[in-house]
Design goal:
Order of helices and strands: EEEEEE
Radius of gyration: 14 Å
Oligomer: single chain
Strand order of the largest sheet: 1-2-5
CATH superfamily: Immunoglobulins
CATH topology: Immunoglobulin-like
Structural class: mainly beta
Number of domains: 1
Length: 86
């Protein structure tokens, strides 16, 4: 699990681009929770991203898009990952 980009777009919508890699031996579904925090560490928003039926060794690029607008510089953090057999 890797954050490849963490940005606020020109309309003030924060998002995190993620690269999910299935390191298990079976096809899996992933559910990833991401939080957006300001420079002091205060949580501004959180959201989820998912991908389904990812084969062993396969990667999936997904975007976790917040539904809360922000106007400050953010940091993105992965706070939880759940993996389920497909």
């Amino acid at each position: 699990m890797k954050i490849t980009a963490c940005e606020v777009d020109s309309s003030n919508w924060p998002h995190a681009d993620l690269l999910i890699t299935n390191r298990s031996s079976k096809a899996s579904d992933y559910w990833v929770q991401v939080e957006f925090v300001d420079a002091t560490g205060k949580r501004l928003s959180e959201t989820y991203a998912s991908t389904n039926n990812l084969a062993p060794g396969q990667q999936s690029a997904v975007t976790a898009q917040s539904l809360d607008q922000v106007t400050v510089k953010i940091t993105c953090r992965i706070t939880d990952v759940s993996r389920y057999a497909s």
